[in-house]
Structures are given as structure tokens and as C-alpha cells.
Model the fold of this input.
Amino acid sequence: MSLRPLYVGIDLGTTNSTAAVFDGEKVTLVRNSAGATLTPSVVRIDARGGVTVGAKARRFLENDADNTRSEFKRLMGTAQSLDFKAAKTSKKPEELAAEVLKSLRADIKEHLGFVPSRAVISVPALFELPQSAATSEAARMAGFEKVELIQEPVASALAAGWSADEKAGSWLVYDLGGGTFDASLLETRDGLLRVVGHDGDNFLGGRDFDAALVDWVLQEVERTQGVTVSRANPKHAAGLRKLKLAVEEVKIELTRATEASLVLSGALEVDGVAVEIDLVVERSTLEAVTSALVERSIEVCKRLLAAHGLGPGQIGRVVLVGGPTVMPALRARVREALGAPFGAGLDPMTLVAQGASIYAATAGLDARAEATMEESGRRVWLQYPAMSSDLTPHVIGRLVDAGQNEGVKIRLSRNDGLWTSPDVALDEEGAFIVTLDLLPRRPNVFKIEARGANGKAIALSPSAFTIVQGMTIADPPLSRTVGVALADDGVRVYFARGAPLPAKRTFTHHTVESVARGSTECLLKIPIVQGELAQAHLCRLVGSLEIGGASVKASLPAGSAVEITLELDRGGHLSARALVPALGQIFEQVAHLLVPDASPDALDATVTAMRGRITELRADAMSRNAERTIGRLTYVECALLDAERETQAARGGDADAGQKARRTLLELDGMLEECEADKRWPELESRARRNLSEAGIWVGQYGSKSEQMLLEEAAQAVEKARAERNAVELQRQLRVVNNLYNACFQRHPDAWAWMFEDAASEADQATDMVRARTLVQSGRKALEKRDMDALRGIVQDLWKLLPVSAQKRRLGHDSGVR
Amino acid sequence: MSEASPVGTNAIDRIRDNPFYVLGLRPDATRQAIERQGTKLLGMLELELKSATSYPTPVGRAARTPEKVRAAMAELREPSRRLEHEIWARLEPEAMPAAPRDVAPIDDEIAPRAGQAADPWPDAFVALGWRAGR
Amino acid sequence: MNGAIAGIIASILISRLGPKNKGPNKPNVPFTAAVWSILVPIGLVLFAGVLAGQVYLIPPLLLIIAVALPWTTTRLVLIPLGFPRVAYWLTRTAEVTFDGDLHGGAVLAGAWALLRRREPDEATAAWLDDRLRLAKPQTLGGAGILATGLLLAGRGDRDGARAVIRTVIDIDARACPEAARRLAAAWLAADAASRGAWREVAEIGIGFGSGRQAWLLSAVAQSLLGEPLAPGRLGLWLRWIVAPNRRGTLAIVRRALDVLDGAYLEIESSDAPPAGAAIVADDAWSTALARHAALLTKPIASVEQGDLLALGRAWDAILEDRAAERILAERALLIGADGSARALTRLRESVEGDLTALVLGRDVGLDDRGDAPSPTLERVRRRVRDSLLVGVESASDALRRRIDDKREIPAVDEWREWTALRIAYDHGTKLAGEDFRRLAFHKIHPDITSLAVWLFNERQQRPLGNAMFKWLLDEATALDDARAIALQTKNVACGV
Done:
């Protein structure tokens, strides 16, 4: 076993997984039993329950799809189980991920001679809490005692930064993964790496490149053979899977060759017809069908740079990460568009794992099991950064066992013998602080010695420690804002994006609903959401605390204070606690910490509803000539096509596609919401104008002096709210205006007669038609007799029978707090 | 205020938990000094050294925790956020002459200060027969 | 002896049979008179027997007294001894005392007896609570509301208790027994005295109608506050003699007498400078920060309008000045921040947020007097109003949803929910003035009316509905809202 600490990093990828080991000086990639550094993230379970992982399993993907699973990473954090028919078992995504991790762990044992107990695992930047928590769970199942998570772009940048020579500058990490695209702007200064900004497209990835090529192949098949293959048809799913694998290989081949032949072993069975596929794909064809996708990624990069006041050409370096970035056309286009050189000698396929292992050093996660070497002597408790960008960091120590501390002197020396600290005396707590001197970019081993008052040496345990000097990143920052949804659909932010983990925060809220003791109907929800949008219903629900009538000691009236504490650990585990001071009770059962299911029917319904909304919004935007809205609607419409395609694939049995569609739809919902807000404002404004002028007439004629003054004040407030574009305030003031209007209108001798006619005209929509008809008849009689009091009663009864407007949309995840 | 609120539930925390005060530094500290000091404090807190467990602020001494130190370091790494904190850290940490008192709870009564005469009568409930005496 | 026991049994039977068809608000004097006409002669006979030395007649005599004077027995014996369940059952027969809310009166007796126990007893508290909410629907009246408050006080929730007990006065006299009113006043006076809120104590007990105890305490409070109209020594002693718990109140009466004797006069409050006043530095930034820090460390109750104005102006000197932006921009350049605009915006937000929290925590609003208005304070005033409005609006929306969904909660909880909404409304009116009041009223008027109508028509909670109508009418009148006045006048006229 190594005497120096060793740090393990794992890239648990959608397609392939990689492990790397960092010894403080260099990073070594771990090879699997087949001698490769990439282990396919594929798991097969045979009829006897035997588990195969990696390349061996991948071979069965085509012919034994029922017992072989891949791309389960995308289902992490969902309740979806994957079936293995022959073994008659089903496994959760994290169980399959655990199998991959176990296999990597075994490879590391081969490599290092011991089983690693601690590691850092990378996760995509867009992972939400349930997905991060599932990843940690997978590591636990694989036997790791402690893991920390790091976002993939940060890991890539760290790896690139470690090997870079320059000390300062801006970097762009262009990370095109299997399913997502992430662009991260980073900055190095004084050896410290900082994520300056982040952008991305959650719907753009290598899969889209494959899909584009598959679509081209299908078009070719249709053109030459007249056979239509549909992604929505479950019967075509097996054939499509086969085709997809072949296309993937062709794509890889085309990175080296200018043309490749696409030949499927055996014919595709489509509706009983055998379809032979034998095509020659040219590199130019691949470039043509994917160029729009490349442009989309470049747009994202430009947007990110612009948001931070930078233009193309102003960044020091671009780091490419992910399989698709080996495409020559893509590389050329990115270099041209961003005007910066690529980091030299960086392997886009393994960079993330390398970065994760370097991060393990920063986090002090030595992979060796703790207390492997027991030394004799007085116990000294040491605190120092395992990895430091600072050349002169502090080491703090404390002699913890009972013993004479008076007169004891401590001295530290670097093992190259070129640096020794002065003698330092212990303070009254038995502690000392020494400033060290590090040699740059390497592991520095220090010896620690103590002498008693009599000058005799005192043996210490441990007697040496290692600090690696190099670029560091401090704590893994939170990838998305976490907060509590409020009753008015707002969000109280607890941890903003970029906040260091672990974190804990408490805020006081107030309930807006009563919880009656013993009532099963009363349930106060405290939804915990994750996302960057200000409206709660557009953020992802990641957990929910519930205070139910059955669990409270006494009834809790609306308006009661609730102190909510959220806590997040480094592995993405969220814990929440609600303290109700009035009851002296604590509630901490967090419910629903899963990514919701995405059934194709529900997705289809959402797509249809969105189409309706788009049509309506477009008509309105056209009439207003609102160009920005029209542009946004066009984007939504295009993205909706993607979502529809994914939904069809979900119907064909691809659960992962369903999840992708669900995410897309959620984001598109947010965009449509913005368009609707754009539409609502002019409507509200014109209503305000109309109501004010009508109220002016009636209040002028029938209002009292004070009512006229009130209207004047309200009119001023309406004007102010319009100037501020404050919709909430405008609605408030409109309530006042309408109230004055109604009061004065009803003073007109014929007011009730008009209102009766109005209500009578809608009587055919009444909930009780018979009674409504009787009321209308009595109303007519009262009208003839000019009995206005009776008429008024009849109208009010009639109103009760008319349907109320459609139920308000339940926003804010039904939050019971504000 | 509850003990479980390391940052931000109270307006006073903006000053009390200002990263510069938490780290015991002044607004002109260099980036490296911030990192070095933060790492040192984290180590001292881990070793439970008393000298690291509290720090002075213009609104009184406050308890120092590893969470506060980590948050402070993260805040100061971002130049824009650092600029905001620099404004609030302009006062010297020991500037307050009087011993700071905790902010009274919101619903506290406005008691007229007429010497001891108008002081509360804590035994009222017992004396008036609403509660059993001790 | 047998006759006596038979008489007692007969009267108990009558009292069991009697109240069945009696509405909550109708007195049942003839029935009580009938019970008494049996018990009094028997009692007199037994008493004579005891006087004649027949000691064995004492227990039946006591039993007769308990049945004839249930509330007096409960008040003087069962409550001080801490027997909640017996107190509850005996008070169920106290028709005269708790006329209008007998059931609530019984729970009240139980809750009070429970408070007198040394050890809190969760099980009994829950049992009493269940009498109010889980039993077959009972009309909740003033006594039941007071009982709820006492149960909350027993759990240590003094704020909740105070909020509920303050509403006893809102219940129509026909559903709120006089005893409940007096006891509520006495509890509120005790609560205010224990907090040192003597002004409140003085107001609670004005006039004899609020009960002897509150009357005494009011006089004591007036003396402690040195009010010119405070009753003199004789007045104090007179009230002390009349009021119950003489031994317990002696100390506080003595304190009041000492004030009359001038013992406290020289100990006036010192005009100590506010904390941090010594550090007013010469540049605008430090001045504003020093004032800000000083104000935050001040007890919230002693934050005055002047403090806020001074702080607002100190911040104006920075936030309304272009020089500040320039200074920040220079610094931003030095440390690599992307400009000063964001820092300045966040500074403005923080300052306004803190000032808003300060104003919201106080009990007095931020009126816009003063010669030179402060732009910062103007924005704070708007924030205070908006935040208070959002509080009331979201509570009102939640209530509306519940009414639409017909999700019932027990009457006690309905009342507490309404009370919470009203407290938020009153607080808003106090802090943000008439503008808030009008906007909030138009929002909650339809929702509260629906709640009140629901309680009144469908849920046998006419006293609660009536109290809400009355409040709405008062508010509508204050706001001169003709339509609401017309509607609520009719609603109030429906009675209880």
C-alpha cells in the first residue's frame, strides 16, 4: 500500500464510466480487465442472476435487450424500475449504477492493491437534488464509506487547470455530453479556480447527433425502399435500437475516415417486411445533418460570454469535454466561432474523471481506509489543507491526550531538508499554529517533531503529513437554487446557486391555512423547490414537509409562525425541519423526494394544451405586433416538436425519453408563462382604463362627495401602478374602483332591472335549470309591478345558480406558508 | 431568534455575519489572505480551539461556526458579492461602545419607563388565581 | 334524610331533562326556579339539622349546596383544588351563570381548574379540547372562546391565548355569558400586568362592568402610570376590599399606594443616548452604517420615528448621490467586479429590507409628516404596505379556497383563523394607514362574508357569524362603503 495519500475520482457517465487516481503529482487512469480506460455503463443480468458490467454486457445490448440495460443514469432519482426478464427481477437505476461503481472499484483494487473506501463522483451540472441523492446512494450500495459529488464542468476545468501553465485567465468548458450541453466560464486567479458563470441547453447532446443521423437514414430507407419506420410504434423499437447502435459506430468512424458504411447485421423487421440497410455515409452528410445542432451550442457559448461582458476571442482557452467533441467539423467550427485555442493534450473522454480525482485531494478524501498505520507516541490532532493553492498555508495542531504540555516545543520540517520551521511553543489549550512553506505543484511531505521542556524528543502520532500544492477549488457549489415555495407562488430562497455545501439555513414563515387538531382533511404543505425562476410552480418540487391535523398536538391557526430549517450535505441529501413554536412541536418527515414519473398520456395532454396556448398567444401577439413574444413563441413551438418526438419515443418504451420530454415541457411552460404575462398586462391595463372611465360617469352622477374623492385617489393610484407596471397593485386599485362603480350603478332606478335581464340571459347555464326558470318568471312579474326589492332578491338568487369561473389554477405547489 | 439560524433570518445578521467580520479581516484583505485565514479558522474550529469560536462585530460578539466560515469564503471569492460586503464591513468590528442587546421580540409591549413603578408584575397570574403558585 | 336524598335525585333528574330543547341563547329561569324550589327547603332543613348537632347531615348538605350553586362551588372549591373533569361536569348544570353558552362555560371551568394544577396534564387538556371540537356540533359562544384561550395558555402559548381571549368581547351578549366576559377581562388584565403593559391594564378595567378584579387592576395601573384621574388611596383600598384574591393583590396595591406617596417620583427614566450614538463618523458611509447598526441593536419597542427618519436621511445621502456610485465603480475595477450597479442595487434592497423589518416589528406606523421627505423612507413605506397587504391577501385567498371546497374545520379553529386574519388586518391598518385599510377591506370583505354566512346558515355557529358581520359593518362604516354597509346591516339584523 502506498505511503502517500491517494485520491480516487469517478466519472459515472451515461454511456461510459471512468475512474482515475491522483497521487498528488500525477493522475493515472484506471484500466479495467479488458485494458480499457472507458467502461461502458451497461449492466446485464442473466437468467441465473449473474451480473455482467461493461463491454461484455454491451455486446448483449443489441440481441438481448430485455436483460441488458444502458443509459440508466438519466433515470436516477425517479421511481422507475428496470426489468430483467430472464432473472425475473427489476432494479432501480441507482442499483444499476452501483453495479458499475462496484466494477470500477474492483478495477481500482487491481490497480492500487487496496479497495478504495472514499471517492469523488461527478454529476451533470443540471442534476437536481433527488438525482444527486440517488448517486450518493449508488456509491453507498457499491461499498464506498464516503463520497462527495462534483459537477462535471467544474471537474473538467480543474483537470485542465491542473495541467495548465498560466496562472490567471478565463476558460470556457464546452461540455457536450450524451444528453445535455453545458458551457461553463471559469476563471483562475492566484491558483484558485472559480466558476464565473454557467449556461447550457438541457435538450442538446450526443444523442441528438445520433438521432439526426438516424432520421436521415430513415428518410433514405423511405425514399429508396418506401418503408416508413416510426419511433412511436413499440413494434419498431427493437429495430430502431439496432439502428441506433450502428449509427453510433458510424459516427465514431467518421471522426477518422471521410466515409463509412452503415450495414446492419440482418434485416430490420418492420411490419412484417424485412428492410435491408446498407448505406455509405459521408462525413459531409454527418456534418450537414448536425450543423444546426453545433450552431445551437455555439449560441449558448456566445450568450454566456456576453452575459459576463466578454466576446469571442477574449477567453484564454476552450476545454472540450465529451465524446461528440471529437468530431472534426465540430472542433473547427467551435475554434472559429470562439476564437480561442483548445487546451492541449486533454482527453475529452476522461477529463471529468481526472478532475474528480484532483478534487478528491482538495476535499481531503484519501481513498485508503482510515487509521491503517498505527504509530506510537502522543496523539496530535492536525488540521491542514490536503491540497493548497497557497504556497504558505497554516497547519494547526493540538496535542489531544493528557500529558505535560508546558515547555513542549514543536518543529516542522519538509522532507527535502530545505525548510524547517522555528520552534513553536504550545498555547494553554495544547495547540500550535505554524506557517508552512510549500514547493509548487507537487506533494510536500512534512515531518513533525516535539521536544519536552528538558529538550528530549517526544514521539508523536502521526509524525508526518502531506500537502499537495496546486490549483484548488474550495467547496462544491450548489448547482441550482433551493428554496421554499410560498402561498403566493413566490419562492423564499434558502440556498442560492453557487452556495457552498454543506449548508444550513433557517427562516420564519407564517401559515396561511389552519390545521385543526384531529382533522384528516387539514394538511399544511411546505413544498421545497429547486430552480432559478421566481415563480414556484415553474421550479422543480424536490421535497415536501407536511403538517397534518392528525399529528399536531393542538390546532394551529392561520398566521402561526413556523421556523423552517433546510440542510444540504455535500452529497445532495436534503433534510428539512419545521418547528412550530406555538405548539413546541417539530416536523421533519420529508415526503416525495423523487423525480416525478412521465407517462406518455400525461405528456401528450400537456403538449396538446401547450399548442392551444401557443395558438392563442400568437394571435394576440400578432394583433399587438409584439415581436419579442412572437420570437419566443416560435422557439417554444420548435422545442415542442422535440418534446413531441421524445414523447413518441416514450410511448415506444423509452422511459429516458419520457423524462427528457417532461423536463423540456416544464421549461417551455415557463417560457409560455412569460408570454402570457406579456399578454395579461395590456389586457389588464385596458380593463383599468375602461373601468375607470365607466366608474367616472356613474360616481359623478350618483356618488357622494367622499365617493368622488375616493375615486379620484384610486385613479391616481391606478396611474402610478400603470407607470410602474405593477400588476398586483393595479388589481388592488381596480377592486376599489369597481366597488365604487357598483355602489353607484345600483343607485340607478333601473339598475336591478338591467342586472335581471343580464342574469336571465345566462339562465340556460344555471346549475339548477328548473329553479332558474321559476326565478326568471317571478322576476318578470316583479319587473311588471316595479317591485325592485323583490327583483333584487331574485337576481341575487339567480346569481347563485350561475356557474363560477373555472377553478383557479393551483399555483405554488399548494404551499401553506408565506 | 432561533439558535439554528447561522445566516440571514434577521436584519442584524447582515452586519453580524458579514464575511469580513466572520474571518476577522478588514475589507482591503487580499484574496490569498482570505483563503489562508478561512482555511486556518476552519482548522482551528475543527480542533475546537476556543480562540476561534467567536469574533467581534460592531453589533457585539458573535459565534463562529464552520458553516459561517465556508459561506464567508465563498461570498468573498465572487468579486461582485465581495464589493457588497465591503460596504457593510466599513465599521470597525469593535466600534460599538455599549454592550449590544438582542433585538426584542416583535410583540414586546412598549412599557413606559417611569422608574420601577411601572415594571411588569410577573406574579400576576399566580396572585390573581389563574395559576398555582410554585 | 331519605327525603333529602330523594329531593336531590329529583332535582338532578329535572336538571338532566330540563335543558334539552333550550336554545343556546334563551334563559331558562322558570326551570331553574323549579329546581331551587325543591332544593332550598331541603337545604334549610338539613342546615337546621346540622345546627342541632346532627353532623352526619353535613355531606348531604354540601351536596345540596353544590347542586344549587354549581358555579360558586366550582369557582371556590374545584378550580383551586385543580379538578378539571369534576369542574366540567358540575358546571354543566350552571345554567344561570353560563346562560347562553353553558357548554363553553363547562369547558372553561375545566380549563381553569387545569391551569391551577402544578403539573401540566396533556391528556386532560386534550380531553377538554375534544369537548369543544369533536363532540356533536355545539354552538360556540363567548365562554367556549375563553376556554380555548385558557387551554392555549396552559400549553404555554400566551400570545395565542391573548389573541383568542381578546375576541370574547366581540361575541353578542346573548351568546356570551356575563361571567365569561368578566373572566376574560380579568385574564387579559393579569396578562397585561405580567408584561408590564399598564396602559392596557388601565383600559381593560374601566368601569365596574368588566368585573371586580379588572376594576381593581385598572385603578392600580392608573396609579402606577401616575395619571391625574387615578383613584386616590381610599378608592384603591375600596376596590381591593371588593375584589377577590385580596391576599394576592395586596403587594401590587401597595406598589400603587407607594406611587401615590411619591416614592418613585425621583427615579425618572434617564435620557441615555441610544447604543452606538457615540460613533457618528464624519463621512456619509460611516454615518449611515453606524446609525444602521445602532438601530438594529436597539430594543425594537424603543425605536422611534425620529430614529427611522434620521437613518432614512443618512442613507439618502448615499443612495441618492452619484458620488457613491463613482466610489463603488472605482473599487469594483480594482477587485475585478463587473461594475458597481449591482452592488448599489443590492445595497438599496438591503437597506430598505432592514428598515421595512424594523417598521413591521413596531406597533406604530411610519407617517409621512416631516418637512423634507426621505426617498428611502418613502420606498420603505410602500414596502411595508405591500408586505402587509400580501399577508392579508394570501390568508384571504386560502380562506376562500377552503370555503369553495367546503373544507370544514371545527368552529374553534374557524374562529382562530378569522382572529389571525383580523389581527393581521388591524396591524396593517395601524402601520400602513387608511390606504391599506381600504385595499385590504375590499379584498377580505367578500371572503369573510362568505365564511360568516357559511357559519351562520349551515353550521349552527350563529354567534360567530354574527360577530363577523358586526366587524364588517363597523369597518364598512369607518370606510364609508355604502354597499357593504347596506349588506352588513341586514346581516347583523339576523341576530344570533
Observations:
- The longest helix of chain C spans residues 411-458.
- Chain C touches chain A through 49 residues (CB under 8 Å).
- Chain C has 22 helices and no strands.
